[in-house]
Structure prediction request, 157 residues.
Amino acid sequence: MRKPETRTYIELLKRRVASLRLMAKELLDCRQSMVRMDLESAREHISYQQGLCSEIRFLDHELRVLRAQIVGPAGVESDHTVFASQFDSASALELRQVLREHADVQKRVRRLNQVYAGLIRRSRRSINVLINVMASYMGTYPPSARHACLFPRQPGV
Prediction:
């Protein structure tokens, strides 16, 4: 049992859980910004989500490297019981608890991401419809007298 490595693994996993919780909050907040059509706020949320994704990728890499150190290169692909056997009883209990939390928050983020993706798809369809409507009416109606001074007709056009 490598006590420092197992402790570090649990701490990295806790950081990943915290990052996923922040991602869930950001997905909810960004969805609200989009519903309110607050594009600036949505951009800020998306930027923060990108940072969280980078952090989660970094943590994933660190967790893989640490797992390889704990069980050895051949054991990286082994099942969870082989990996958990490397922990003392207290650490194994804590690991199981953190893994449960991780699975719960990961499921929540996956669901929120699916809802968010659906919102984006529907928004894209609505925008495409509006673009098509505008394109089909371009040039159909002459400018009103009020707009004639803003957009004077050019001779020969």
